[in-house]
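Per-residue structure
===
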Amino acid sequence: METELSRRLGVEHAVFGFTPFPAVAAAITRAGGFGVLGAVRYSAPDELRRDLEWMQRHTGGGPYGVDVVMPAAMARPEEPAGDAADGAGTDLEARIEALIPEGHREFVRATLARYGVPDPAPGEASGWRITGWLDQVARSQLDVVFDYPVRLLANALGAPPADVLRRAHDHRVPVAALAGSARHARRHQAAGVDIVVAQGYEAGGHTGEIASMVLTPEVVRAVDPLPVLAAGGIGTGEQIAAALALGAQGVWLGSVWLTTREAELHSRALTRKLLAAGSGDTVRSRALTGKPARQLRTAWTDAWDAADSPDPLPMPLQGLLVADAVSRIQRYEVEPLLGTPVGQVVGLMTEERPVQAVFDDLTRGFERAIDRLNRVAGRVT
């Protein structure tokens, strides 16, 4: 599964695997792909540094990348005047949280109470805060990232700011940006992005409204000669072959790694839900981050879609609003509410396997697809 891009980056297979789990990212690289570690969950630079140190020791010398989240637009508080205008750390987070309406907080409390979600124990940490959406947090992550020999910087929500692009290029690190339309892709190209990830409607996480079969060739034509990675609805070798036939230089896979043995999912109940889910059991919802993101359909997403629910808040307010609730749902494994971002390929994820076994299946499926195409083309007698 080699392409010009995979050869340029020094990987055997043009499979770029996005994951929040260092063990999965390292295993993807060791299997001959390109592991990409998602950084959004790291609120403290030292935590990211710790895991990049671990990656350095466990990738077998193969290349890997990091994915950050730097939204082009988000709700921001007014800057305070005078000495209070430090604009950093918990002060900014507190000022952003102050923008969350009390009615939204009450809706979250009522939903948790309806399903019997326990309150945190006295002194118990509130859990993960989605501060990685904040610009200054993402920039502090970059201060760590560029201390390591990363071979790719990706931004999950479009082209990063111009100064971040310049900084990456100064370190000779190519930049990838996700796009949900040809218009977005052309904008990324004009900004100086090196690789465009065409992410179709079927994908997990933040997506647009165009399916991969339509989107991939549109983006390939729109940004030629930039390389394009296809994302969304890809979980088999046959689907990788289809993406390359549409002009992609590789594929960007995220959901398929969630049920690998190396994944550090916080809940066995969630793993069971993923393994039991069909391709129709996901929904695009703003309930998690404030932007449309495909995830498992649960009682939580249904509550936010109900007629009497408040409208989800813009990013990053929604993520900050629900962070504690999501942590409690996960900690206590409240199954009706338990979910995660995942794409429609969840219907193919029916057993826990090591990352290497996933790669073996991808390779065999790719070879079968190429053999079929050769027979159709009359090249095999």
